[in-house]
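User: Just a sanity check before I run the rest of the batch. Below are the structure tokens for the first item. I only need the designed sequence back.
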């Protein structure tokens, strides 16, 4: 072979091979993933602090040893306000009214919202898309618009204001209950109901023994959300309250004169009760998941035997 036909070997720069080495990409990916994870953790911690800081201030000032009308300046630690949290009669009556309205509105919203969610998920009917649109509409509409519209409706219909608070709260609570229960129903396995009916259970037994227990966490979550929204609502309640005074309305009226520490005490009690209910719900769900993960064949067999023995 001649020298002219022999190709000269290609000489690469020393840094070119290092730049193109494929083993560096996993290392860079791992570093980038670590930085992203740490950034998300820091962001989540800051967001959590931002959300919990006002609640911490409310709890802190329930122990404030204030002697003025406004409970805005820290003057020392005391437990005297917790010794008689229901000292102010008007505040206590307003709190009772808010609880009664919230309980009634929650029951009505859970019943109607669960039935609407079942209809939207299980059945195909004309106007289903429009129903979905109108369900989400109250969630996207500003509260001041809903309050003014409901006030006009009640005045036009000649309904006395007061009990209209319950009607208004049920109206906007239904949307949240439907969304929560519907998300639970979408992941529901319909073969469980078919298996129950194959074992001899009728429609009512199937619903009470199979469907309802499986969607109960979604119903409970919707109920807690509806109760929290109802007891906390101010804008819609202010338009349709009439002579009825709820807990948020009493605080709004008292803020122009004074805010006693008992307001912080009762607000702290509501927060602690809500936190306890949430922890119980999370514990119950995790307990149910653990029971389902332990020998699922035996638990499913026992449940099917128990269902087969149930009266039809």
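Assistant: Here's the designed sequence for the first item:
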């Amino acid at each position: 072979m001649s020298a002219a036909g022999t190709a000269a070997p290609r000489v690469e720069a020393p840094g070119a091979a290092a730049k193109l080495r494929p083993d560096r990409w996993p290392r860079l990916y791992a570093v980038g993933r670590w930085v992203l994870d740490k950034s998300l953790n820091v962001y989540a911690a800051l967001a959590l602090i931002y959300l919990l800081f006002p609640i911490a201030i409310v709890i802190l000032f329930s122990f404030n040893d204030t002697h003025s009308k406004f409970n805005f300046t820290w003057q020392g630690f005391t437990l005297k306000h917790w010794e008689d949290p229901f000292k102010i009669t008007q505040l206590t009556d307003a709190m009772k009214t808010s609880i009664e309205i919230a309980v009634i509105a929650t029951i009505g919203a859970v019943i109607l919202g669960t039935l609407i969610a079942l209809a939207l998920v299980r059945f195909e009917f004309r106007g289903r898309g429009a129903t979905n649109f109108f369900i989400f509409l109250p969630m996207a509409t500003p509260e001041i618009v809903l309050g003014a519209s409901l006030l006009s409706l009640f005045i036009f219909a000649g309904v006395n204001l007061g009990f209209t608070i319950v009607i208004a709260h049920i109206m906007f609570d239904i949307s949240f209950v439907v969304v929560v229960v519907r998300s639970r129903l979408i992941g529901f396995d319909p073969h469980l109901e078919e298996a129950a009916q194959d074992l001899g259970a009728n429609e009512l037994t199937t619903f009470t023994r199979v469907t309802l227990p499986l969607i109960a966490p979604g119903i409970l979550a919707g109920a807690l959300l509806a109760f929290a929204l109802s007891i906390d609502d101010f804008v819609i309640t202010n338009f349709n309250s009439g002579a009825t005074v709820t807990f948020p309305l009493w605080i709004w009226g008292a803020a122009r004169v004074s805010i006693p520490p008992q307001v912080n005490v009762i607000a702290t009690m509501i927060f602690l009760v809500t936190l306890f209910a949430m922890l119980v719900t999370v514990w119950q769900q995790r307990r149910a998941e653990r029971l389902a993960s332990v020998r699922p064949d035996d638990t499913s067999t026992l449940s099917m035997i128990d269902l087969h023995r149930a009266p039809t």
